[in-house]
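Task 17 of the worksheet. Students: predict the tertiary structure of the chain below and write it out as structure tokens. Keep your answer in the requested format; marks are given for formatting as well as content.
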Amino acid sequence: RDEEYFRDMHPDSCKRISPYIDKELDRMEGEESPLYDEYIDSKMLEKMGDKVYDRVISDMPDMAEEVEDRQFGRRRILRDLVGVLLFSNLLRRRRRRRRRRYDYDFDYDYY
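Model answer:
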């Protein structure tokens, strides 16, 4: 399937981070989860990203990076990568959920 094929093409750093993101999203997932609200709270997503980042750094200190002065501030590149992977994984889950809901709501007896 395309999704798995492209996920296998991710760099090693993304492959190492992905299980942490999956675990955090699995923890938050549920029928009434705020992850599936029409408009997700950006602060909640930031906290989730920070949590994943902290776990990654505590379990794999080799992924820690030196804070460097960059043109756009001092935010760490790894933290940004965690955010991007978190958003893309969440978007994938939301699409899958909408697709399932559409299949169940579709009236197949329509003539």
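Marker's comment: The helical segments are 2-8, 12-28, 42-59, 77-105. The mean pLDDT is 79.
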